[in-house]
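Appendix B. One record, verbatim.
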Amino acid sequence: MVTFSLNQSVTDFSIAMTSGRIFTLSDLAGKNVVLFFYPKDNTPGCTTENIAFRDLYSQFMGANTEVFGLSRDSLRSHENFKSKLELPFELISDPDEIICTLFDVMKIKNMYGKKVRGIERSTFLINSSGQIVKEWRTVKVNNHVNEVLEFVNTCTSQSFKNR
């Protein structure tokens, strides 16, 4: 299976998301996309990260940038999490790890001395032409969303296309 990496065009894909909708990358042509991968709904770090994206969402939208969160949780879990946090963006459900594998975010992690396979918290910025222009891996939640927004704001449409 091919994985996506920095400076590569992302092949179109479709997958289920909240609000009964289907995420299809090609539907977002002409817009930048922030796709952030997080381990699990209703956990402290993931809640904090989603709230940070929620609180800065209008600024992302003002920069022609759509935001989507993705984890392996079910759509039902995502719907509850989205409602509880009043998230203005959709959450993508990837229980079969198809998109997680494409973006190479599934890693062996050490949880309380035990090795477990899970999502490595990661964020990708895809430009309006469908190319990955920035990736953040092994993300620490504190100030991460501000860093992503700052990067988005410093890039012009032309620089997005040529990065």
